[in-house]
Design a protein that fits this description.
With 178 residues, the chain is an all-alpha fold. It has a single domain, classed as YP_001051499.1 domain like (YP_001051499.1 fold like). Helix content is 75%, strand content 0%. The chain is built from 8 helices and no strands. It is globular, with a radius of gyration of 15 Å. 42% of the residues are buried.
């Protein structure tokens, strides 16, 4: 885990804000399936967050009113998830929320938390083999960072990270079968 944090701290400052947000969006898209599979949280609001994030990555703009509306509602949804649902649902929501906040503040410190939430989601989604899930996500994150370093603002999109590594993740497939 320390190696990952070192790589994040060395790589993120070299990425443009839009590429950082796209990387965070890639992490969020990776856990979105948990919300679809569990069917516990309606995917509309997290989906709206990903749409705003995607719009920002593509054209560098977002509607402040729409952003604030989704931000407030996502915050409430996370509180509910913490009280009512299993940890993997809570951490999936946090991953999406943290990635969404990167639109407003694409700072290294904000973006750096997103992959850590992704790892927590994977670990809680497959508790009997959390180490495998964690290692799989670290491998994906390192691959995604290498990919991000090669991208320019002109061509970057959050969905470009979808085809890196095993998608859906093995830990998610195993979790769906349970």
């Amino acid at each position: 885990m320390q190696q990952l944090q070192d790589v994040l701290q060395n790589t993120l400052p070299n990425l443009s804000p839009r590429v950082r947000v796209a990387f965070a969006g890639g992490c969020a898209r990776r856990v979105f399936d948990i919300l679809l599979v569990t069917n516990l949280i309606p995917p509309d609001l997290p989906g709206q967050a990903l749409v705003i994030l995607t719009k920002y990555v593509v054209d560098g703009e977002f509607s402040a009113d729409e952003f604030n509306h989704v931000k407030d509602n996502l915050g409430q949804l996370i509180d509910e998830a913490q009280e009512q649902y299993d940890d993997e649902v809570y951490y999936a929501m946090r991953t999406i929320y943290e990635a969404f906040l990167c639109v407003e503040q694409p700072l290294m410190e904000v973006v750096e938390g997103v992959p850590l939430e992704l790892i927590a989601t994977a670990s809680y989604a497959l508790p009997e083999d959390a180490k495998t899930a964690e290692n799989e996500e670290i491998e994906w994150i390192l691959t995604a960072l290498e990919f991000a370093e090669m991208q320019s603002d002109d061509l970057i999109r959050a969905d470009m990270f979808d085809n890196l590594g095993a998608l859906p993740p093995r830990w998610l497939l195993q979790w769906e079968i349970r």
